Amino acid sequence: MTDTMPRKLPFPVVDNCLQVGGVPLTRLAQRVGRTPFYAYDRGLLTARAKTLRATLPRQVRLHYSVKANPMPALVQHMAGLVDGCDVSSAGELKVVLDTGMAPEHISFSGPGKREDELARAVAAGVLINIESMRELQCVARSGDRLGIRPRVAVRVNPDFELKSSGMRMGGGAKQFGIDAELAPQVLRQIAALGLDFVGLHVFSGSQCLKAEAIIEAQARTLELAVRLAQHAPQDMRLLNMGGGFGVPYFSGENELDIRSIGDHLAQVVSRLEAQLPQAQLAIELGRYLVSEAGIYVTRIIDRKVSRGHAFLVADGGMHHHLAASGNLGQVIRKNYPVLIGNRVAAHNSENTSVVGPLCTPLDLIADKIDLPPAKIGDLVVVLQSGAYGLTASPTAFLGHPVPEEVLV
Fold this sequence. Notes:
- The structure is a single chain.
- This protein has 2 domains: 13-40 and 291-407, Lyase, Ornithine Decarboxylase, Chain A, domain 1 (Beta Barrel), CATH 2.40.37.10; 70-285, Alpha-Beta Barrel (TIM Barrel), CATH 3.20.20.10.
- It has 11 helices and 22 strands.
- The radius of gyration is 23 Å and the shape is elongated.
- It is of the alpha/beta class.
- Helix content is 29%, strand content 26%.
- The strands form 4 sheets. Strands 4, 16, 17, 18, 19, 20, 21 and 22 form an 8-stranded mixed beta sheet that branches. An 8-stranded parallel β-barrel has the order 5-6-7-8-9-12-14-15, surrounded by 5 helices.
- Helix 5 (115-124) packs across helix 6 and helix 8 packs parallel to helix 9.
- Pfam families: Orn_Arg_deC_N.
């Protein structure tokens, strides 16, 4: 084990080999037929959802953010575990509608919705999170043309941010949502257009590992919602607080304390019932639900030593897993948890780097880490790969084949 390995593997190891969905990795690779590939463990997906259900108040609706992983089979599985799904394109909308999920449980977010996408969402009857006055006018026109009263919520850019988050999506000048101070004007316009106002969507940040920061953001979100409800054209029926729940990727990071968040949400539910009695509370999660259930698998096709340092050259890399490579050369690069999937329990190790087949030094899967001595044909596994993996990567770069995805 190395300092790039998690303290506790989410997958079992039998006879030195990682098991995914109860299948040894070597056998799974044979079934898939080629590397690289992504594999997602449906048992781990189910277990994570059950853990959240047991920890969060029963009144809290659990939504899946499809952008984290839109693989159709995975979304089909998630649709049976959550209360709703959030999509960010017409393509994702089709994937969720194909699961059979009722349109009233689907929401559509994103700062750049095209008019044709908005028209599809209106026709489907899903909830549209309005992020600009242009979107509002487009939705109203589509509703008039189709003879439908569109269901809308206002995505609010709050006047605060999620502290300690890996990606701050609220507070300050942002392309996301309606600035909180402008939201009353938009709410009045919704009333004037006769649209069906459902509620608010407040998303302040993502990938946060500090429970106290999430708790503070949730408390301030409730205060903001109560304040804006005074300007709403009708009773608020939904308050989507977003999520922000992070997962530990790197050495030194600790798991999020969701129990304290659950305890705080029980207080939020009580206050919401007292101040906005018609409103349901929703938490929207993507990465937290699926990241740890997925792996990226690539095969070593060459081994070389350059001036004393060993390089394992794999058949996959940055073009399939941009985040693990360092997102196109971020200033401070850290290694994702990486292992040799068919030599997990080996006791000896060597310092090595795992690189992909692309003609760029940025194609780096793991840099100068201790791994068991590996041979050509061995399988490199990148853990924590269930979210923002394949569809968040430049798969067309250099024209290599797109990897397979399997749900086991």
